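User: Can you write out an input/output pair for a complex, sequences first and structure second?

Assistant: Here is one pair. Inputs:
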Amino acid sequence: MARYSPSVQNLIAKLGSLPGIGGKSAQRLAFHILSMPEKEASELADAIKEAHRLNKRCSSCRNFTDSDPCPICSDPKRDRSIICVVESPRDVSTFERMHEYRGLYHVLHGVFDPSRSKGMNDITLAELFERLSKSPEVREVIMATNPTAEGNATALYVSRLLTGSGIRVSRLASGLPMGGDIEYTDDLTLASALKGRVDISS
Amino acid sequence: MARYSPSVQNLIAKLGSLPGIGGKSAQRLAFHILSMPEKEASELADAIKEAHRLNKRCSSCRNFTDSDPCPICSDPKRDRSIICVVESPRDVSTFERMHEYRGLYHVLHGVFDPSRSKGMNDITLAELFERLSKSPEVREVIMATNPTAEGNATALYVSRLLTGSGIRVSRLASGLPMGGDIEYTDDLTLASALKGRVDISS
């Protein structure tokens, strides 16, 4: 690490703080960026700022979008009686890629996670319940959080709060390996899990 | 990839073009960046521009530096009779970490690589020879390119061009595994390879 200039050290630190990028990778990326033509480096920096500036959370589903409501929420062809609740925007993309789901989404941006002290207010659960209270057309909520302890707990929590509301709460069927990640599931497995989803309303 | 907004697609593409970052990682990073507070995302973008703006190639050794000549080239305590020629700025950092080398460096920013059509003009070989012609104090050039086919060929090429110049050309000793990478070598192995370097002057 010796003798890097402060601006390079700063860049390495910033890159190293991104998920999945360790110290060596951060150095490699930093020097790659320094080797780029000035125009390319500048475009990378601008892409970060632009994406951040243009993309806010959809006021309905909380997915990132550059138009509000987002293209999915404002699509008149989507089935408004069903909401699929996912952990991350990438999960929405995985579902859409499958072309088998025509309902709406709700992006939690996380799950309950006591070990990382992620609680109720760090995810968009309050927004989900507010949305449900204003949407009498909703008949079912699919809790498509990952099949982990935290994902299951979050699903169960929502199911309990919706007891007596008349809204069916379901969970993706088994087929997803426990401890796995929806993002890396192949389309067939995901489709079968969606089809076989089971009731968890109590 | 469906339904990402253009600015997010652009950010994913830009991140995915960086070395070692595939499609999935690029998506993960992009959404992590969108989730950051605006200030942090902005600081990351600025760190890229700042590092790029402030760091140019040293007019002597061609390493990235924010002062010209760089701290190593301008250090009066360094041994000016010996130049260690490396492929990348990270290799300089690896040598410096070892604390056993007190000479100067020359950063090639690559090696001959016909498969990626990297030739003479893509690396700083002309600059090395120009530097040597102006530095009669240089007694030895250590070719510390990686022990790969391309690194060996580059070392041999330099050695041939310096035949009869009175400059000793050496190569790091065996100890580095063939096909390996200097950057990931532990200090002891690197120190022993430096100590046992062998003459390749013809």
